[in-house]
Design the sequence.
């Protein structure tokens, strides 16, 4: 997290020329370093695939595994839930199996059914952490790992669990690179959210996790104070032009948190840098006073798809914890609508309340609200 | 790393962890038993599968153009969802929904992996956006004008129990009726040996929060000690031989098809079971 905070504060992005796809595709990607050289421990070798490797790398960071162990010790393994979001899970392994078919059959090293399924990630993480409570994969495209916070809070509120590990992991694969390319949504440049010249996304990969407990268990910790979930009821791959669903999710998150828009210091926008998403999302900003700052961090990381909700939730939390506003990297000429709210340069500022937007295919929307502990 | 906590309410019901939901509507589809009345008759041993039955769900909730183009999982999921909403007499427009599927649209996964292995630039954009796990939730909310939250979940071999729990939690926590649909379609191509599912099957419920007097009702309790999983009735076990989702769904549907109260136990996670009291 420290490295992310440093990069966000310095306006230093991580996109690079695509060197990943199995065939040439002229675009930029956010590729995690070192995944190829980080095999899973022998005990988890049956879960081996790029997505689970990235999940395992993520679990090693920032004392996360120790935090999970602590909540298991405190509450019991069966009182800790595991809810993870992913869009494509380990489909990269299925793609590889098809490239290397052995007389029409999966090659022996990839003939492991448990990795060729959307639940591969959560099943691996359950085994790796020893979490024994409810375990669920949410796969609603690019809102997946925002919704996990809502599901965990509901289970906790009903008393089914006392803590949860939530998060999201998605890794680069041909399906998303060539899929978004087929939809003509991939930019040949590093993505430029909210710029007049924006022409599509850059695809990235990420693992992001958080441990949730009730407020009494950690009164001084950062807080999830609200969330909203909605559907556009409009189109499979195009957002509602008047932002109907996005606004419903945002309004619900504010209402649940008991907040007026003027309490919001920072909004981490979905900001994919497609023409339509950014045009739609900009319509939400006039609800906020000019003092509210907004940015998309997709220019740093690329669009990490099913991991974006959790990754950008972490960015919103970093903004609160360290007191800074991440800039909208690569946005040089913002279009008029969102301009007054957009942070174009990093700056230091106290952040008490931060929101994070996530919108996915199928018109699937989520908005999360975070705050620092009350003094 | 600091834990994150929710600043809302104290837990309502920590000790008990019992969830009750009223069954307002039921939908079901597999080839030869295309709705709940025919599935119920099958489970009661009153009639068999209709051999001449159509191989595709009618999916009348979708506009005609979408129905022609939509992949099989979307046809199946929207068909059972519409049946359950009709029986519940609930307008789908206001119902949050949870669509659960072990594998999603397997024929599209096969198409994508096959195309990517030979001609990645020829990938169909429509097939790509139909490949997301929430494609049925997307088509359903578009067709019904549903603006409530929608979800798409998976839990591999415990998808049914994990999804049902998620839907019941949503109903109880948000105090709202919820549409729950669980479905899988058959695998094709090289994926068939791996994913194994060879028969399309789906069932849907409209669940409403209730007290422990309402009927018909399911009361769910989490159990972390071992217990026998309730099997699907022997007469229909063949339908479920390659998919636990189907087996678990049939076990619950068999209980709902009976005239007496019953209990069953289904898996909800690795090492976690869901005890269910069914009151009809």
Sequence:
């Amino acid at each position: 997290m420290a490295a992310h905070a440093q990069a966000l504060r310095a306006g230093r992005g991580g996109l690079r020329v695509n060197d990943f796809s199995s065939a040439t595709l002229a675009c930029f990607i956010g590729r995690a370093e070192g995944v190829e050289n980080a095999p899973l421990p022998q005990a988890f070798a049956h879960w081996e695939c790029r997505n689970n490797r990235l999940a395992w790398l993520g679990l090693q960071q920032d004392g996360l595994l120790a935090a999970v162990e602590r909540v298991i010790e405190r509450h019991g393994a069966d009182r800790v839930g595991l809810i993870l979001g992913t869009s494509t899970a380990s489909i990269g392994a299925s793609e590889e199996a098809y490239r290397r078919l052995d007389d029409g059959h999966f090659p022996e090293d990839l003939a492991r059914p448990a990795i060729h399924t959307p639940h591969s990630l959560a099943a691996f993480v359950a085994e790796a952490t020893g979490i024994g409570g409810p375990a669920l994969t949410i796969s609603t495209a690019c809102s997946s790992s925002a919704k996990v916070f809502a599901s965990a809070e509901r289970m906790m509120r009903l008393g089914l669990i006392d803590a949860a590990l939530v998060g999201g992991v998605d890794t680069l694969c041909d399906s998303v690179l060539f899929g978004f390319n087929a939809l003509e949504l991939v930019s040949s440049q590093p993505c430029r959210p909210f710029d007049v010249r924006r022409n599509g996304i850059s695809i990235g990969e990420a693992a992001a996790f958080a441990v949730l407990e009730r407020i009494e268990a950690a009164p001084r910790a950062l807080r999830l104070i609200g969330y909203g979930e909605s559907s556009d009821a409009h189109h499979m791959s195009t957002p509602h032009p008047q932002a109907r669903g996005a606004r419903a999710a945002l309004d619900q998150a504010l209402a649940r948190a008991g907040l007026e828009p003027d309490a919001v210091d920072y909004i981490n926008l979905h900001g994919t840098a497609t023409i339509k998403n950014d045009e739609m999302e900009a319509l939400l900003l006039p609800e906020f006073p000019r003092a509210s700052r907004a940015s998309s961090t997709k220019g740093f990381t690329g669009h990490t798809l099913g991991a974006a909700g959790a990754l950008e939730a972490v960015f919103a939390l970093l903004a609160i914890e360290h007191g800074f506003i991440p800039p909208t990297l690569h946005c040089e000429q913002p279009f008029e609508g969102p301009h007054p709210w957009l942070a174009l340069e990093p700056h230091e500022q106290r952040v008490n309340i931060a929101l994070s937007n996530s919108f996915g295919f199928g018109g699937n929307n989520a908005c999360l609200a975070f705050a620092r502990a009350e003094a | 790393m600091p834990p994150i906590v929710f600043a809302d309410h104290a837990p309502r019901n920590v000790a008990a962890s019992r969830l009750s939901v009223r069954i307002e509507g039921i939908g079901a589809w597999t080839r030869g038993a295309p709705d709940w009345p025919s599935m119920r008759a099958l489970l009661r041993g009153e009639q068999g599968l209709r051999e001449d039955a159509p191989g595709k769900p009618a999916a009348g909730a979708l506009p005609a153009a979408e129905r022609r183009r939509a992949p099989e999982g979307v046809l199946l999921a929207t068909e059972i969802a519409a049946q359950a909403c009709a029986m519940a007499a609930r307008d789908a427009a206001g119902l949050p929904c949870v669509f659960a599927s072990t594998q999603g649209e397997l024929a599209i996964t096969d198409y994508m992996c096959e195309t990517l292995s030979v001609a990645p630039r020829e990938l169909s954009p429509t097939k790509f956006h139909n490949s997301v796990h929430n494609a049925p939730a997307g088509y359903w909310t578009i067709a019904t004008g549903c603006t409530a939250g929608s979800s798409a979940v998976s839990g591999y071999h415990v998808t049914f129990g994990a999804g049902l729990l998620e839907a019941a939690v949503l109903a109880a926590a948000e105090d709202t009726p919820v549409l729950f649909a669980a479905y899988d379609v058959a695998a094709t191509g090289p994926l068939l040996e791996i994913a194994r599912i060879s028969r399309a099957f789906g069932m849907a419920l409209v669940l409403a929060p209730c007290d422990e007097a309402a009927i018909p009702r399911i009361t769910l309790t989490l159990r972390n000690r071992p217990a026998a999983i309730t099997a699907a009735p022997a007469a229909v076990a063949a339908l479920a031989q390659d998919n636990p989702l189907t087996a678990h769904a049939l076990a619950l549907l068999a209980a709902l098809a009976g005239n007496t109260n019953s209990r069953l136990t289904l898996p909800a996670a690795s090492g976690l079971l869901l005890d269910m009291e069914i009151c009809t």
